[in-house]
């Protein structure tokens, strides 16, 4: 993969020891900081005035089909045993699995936490990469377990060979392997061939959690969902969400797909708290693939157009297969830049150690991205155009 600037290992907090020893244990405080989405405490009018490019949301909002379904479900708001659109069956049929292979969760985040609670005993470890989505690592700390976090490669990808080697070396200590694919915050994918390499290379009974929250935005033909491995009976859990492509982030609905016994084991720790509106909205989303395709097309177009402008302004971007991307700020650190954008009415992504000179930008509407580009050019001077190819 071509990128515009080589990755500097010096920027890894904790040093190259993580790359050599392949073991990086983060403090509870750091994990908590990475795993949180910034909460807004001002009034609704002030919140609505911001351009929101910080949390990888779908800025187009739910399609008409989803809104209609949720509005129709209000009549059940006062009920406990209400019709739910047969949501579990619809999800199961969508993936060609059985209802017993589905665990409905409050967003995919609950599924990640339930996985950690189920398969990590105190003193055990989850293994994954850094930076990545930190919820699993945070939950590991919550249950008095640890995390082995391997560094990304120079081109910001997950090193599958190293992941296999370290997993086998520490197999007795590891409760499960975690992979975000595409990865958050870099947007890079692990190919279908690499997923097979991972699953074939580690112990056959080793649970693997693959977070596919951004699956719907991928257009790389080398990518493939891991759900077929569930059908094979492998100990694979695939987490999905309606927060992104279906624009239901605040409704909190997602699900896990896994072998039936794993679902039974995890169900013990699930909250069973998904609300009626979210269930009907999710069903409508699955039944409206045209709306999902429309969001995907608009998002990819806006992502590519925006990164092209940034690169022509002289700032490297990491090729992304998601509804966000990362841009290099050169020698500037992202934390003070966040505040500069906020003063201009734009919310951008939080820092992602150790990539503290990279800023993650969610892809918004044309109006959103126009405002972002204007602000970016006001904050950053033009430099020579970046030269490496985009994905």
What this model shows, in words?
The protein has helices spanning 17-21, 28-35, 44-49, 64-72, 87-95, 107-119, 135-142, 160-169, 192-201, 227-231, 260-267, 276-286, 289-312, 334-343, 366-379, and strands at residues 51-53, 102-105, 125-130, 146-151, 174-180, 208-211, 236-241, 254-257, 317-318, 324-328, 346-348, 358-362. With 391 residues, it is α/β, with parallel strands linked by helices. The protein folds into two domains: 38-61 and 290-379, Alpha-Beta Complex (Aspartate Aminotransferase, domain 1); 64-287, Type I PLP-dependent aspartate aminotransferase-like (Major domain) (Aspartate Aminotransferase, domain 2), CATH 3.40.640.10. A seven-stranded mixed beta sheet has the order 2-8-7-6-5-3-4, with helices on both faces. Strand 9 (317-318) and strand 10 (324-328) form a beta hairpin. Helix 2 (28-35) runs antiparallel to helix 7 (135-142). It is globular.
């Amino acid at each position: 993969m071509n990128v515009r600037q080589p990755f500097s290992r010096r920027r890894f907090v904790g040093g190259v020891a993580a790359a050599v020893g392949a073991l990086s244990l983060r403090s509870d405080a750091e994990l908590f900081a990475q795993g949180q989405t910034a909460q807004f405490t001002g009034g609704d009018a002030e919140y609505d005035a911001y351009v929101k490019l910080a949390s990888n949301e779908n800025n187009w909002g739910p399609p008409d089909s989803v809104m209609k379904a949720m509005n129709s479900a209000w009549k059940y708001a006062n009920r406990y045993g209400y019709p739910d659109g047969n949501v579990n069956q619809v999800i199961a049929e969508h993936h060609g699995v059985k209802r017993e292979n589905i665990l409905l969760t409050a967003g995919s985040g609950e599924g990640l936490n339930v996985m950690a609670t189920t398969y990590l005993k105190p003193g055990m470890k989850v293994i994954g990469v850094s930076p990545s989505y930190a919820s699993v690592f945070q939950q590991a700390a919550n249950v008095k377990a640890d995390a082995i976090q391997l560094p990304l490669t120079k081109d910001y990808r997950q090193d599958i060979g190293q992941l296999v080697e370290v997993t086998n070396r520490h197999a007795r200590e590891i409760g499960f392997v975690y992979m975000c694919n595409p990865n958050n915050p870099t947007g890079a994918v692990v190919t279908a061939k690499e997923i097979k390499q991972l699953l074939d290379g580690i112990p056959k009974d080793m649970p693997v959690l693959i977070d596919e929250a951004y699956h719907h935005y991928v257009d790389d033909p080398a990518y493939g969902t891991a759900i077929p491995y569930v059908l094979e009976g492998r100990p694979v859990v695939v987490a999905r969400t309606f927060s992104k492509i279906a624009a239901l982030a605040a409704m909190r609905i997602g699900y896990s797909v896994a072998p039936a016994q794993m679902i039974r084991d995890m169900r013990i720790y699930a909250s069973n708290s998904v609300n009626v509106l979210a269930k009907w909205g999710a069903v409508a989303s699955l039944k409206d693939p045209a709306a999902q395709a429309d969001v995907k097309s608009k998002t990819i177009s806006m992502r590519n157009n925006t990164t092209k402008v940034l690169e022509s302004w002289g700032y490297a971007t990491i090729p992304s297969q998601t509804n966000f991307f990362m841009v290099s700020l050169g020698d500037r650190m992202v934390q003070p830049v966040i505040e500069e954008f906020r003063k201009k009415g734009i919310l951008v992504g939080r820092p992602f150690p150790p990539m503290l000179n990279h800023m993650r930008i969610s892809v918004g509407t044309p109006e959103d991205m126009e405002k972002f580009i204007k602000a970016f050019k006001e904050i950053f001077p033009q430099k020579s155009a970046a030269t490496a190819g985009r994905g």
